[in-house]
Specification:
This protein is mostly helical and 188 residues long. Among the domains are: 44 residues, no CATH class; 66 residues, no CATH class. The chain is 43% helix and 0% strand.
Length: 188
């Protein structure tokens, strides 16, 4: 056995790392945390560690909020150029409404109205804000119906007692006091 080990008792500092037993203060204690970090950044810049980073010279995209509830889902969908189903349906409905407006006397108009109404029903179930819902269409209220009537194409009438559909963006009549007057035929 070694004689030097027996003669000297173990001190608590013998088992600690040199970081804790170093008699000189650490760089953080001397310079402060911010100055030390700034020095590390400047040294990395001098070495060229920040050259050729992806997105260099482009502005940062600060529109996303990583603290949002479903941020990761929205981030993945946005990067994949995928929109929620209700937004895709709204685009399809708007395209159908434009087609109906442009083809008032087309023979497939009634079928197109039925297809659009199926999309409207699905859209109205999915849309997060009720104010964005579309009313169902009838041949008389679909875009281009007046043009079809002027051209002599008859629109089949809706069954008796069926709710009256209004075109998107239609205004309800105003009462004398400024409030909305209920329609006598009833609405959705």
């Amino acid at each position: 056995m070694d004689q030097s080990r027996r003669e000297r008792p173990a001190e608590p500092g013998d088992r600690l790392s040199p970081y804790w037993t170093n008699p000189e203060p650490s760089p953080l204690a001397v310079k402060g945390y911010r100055d030390w970090v700034e020095e590390q950044i400047q040294e990395a810049m001098a070495r060229g560690d920040f050259d050729n980073l992806p997105g260099k010279g482009k502005p940062l995209d600060l529109t996303e909020n990583p603290f949002e509830k479903d941020w990761l889902v929205h981030h993945i969908l946005k990067n994949a150029s995928v929109a929620p189903e209700w937004i895709e349906l709204r685009r399809e409905i708007q395209a159908d409404l434009a087609w109906l407006r442009d083809h008032p006397d087309h023979p497939g108009r009634a079928e197109r109205i039925r297809e659009t109404n199926r999309k409207i029903d699905r859209y109205n179930l999915l849309v997060p804000i009720p104010n964005l819902q579309y009313p169902r269409l009838t041949p008389a209220t679909a875009p281009g119906a007046r043009l079809a009537q002027a051209a002599g194409v008859e629109a089949p009438s809706s069954p008796a007692g069926a709710p009256r559909a209004e075109t998107p963006g239609a205004q309800l009549p105003r009462a004398a006091g400024g409030g909305v007057q209920p329609s006598p035929e009833g609405s959705r």
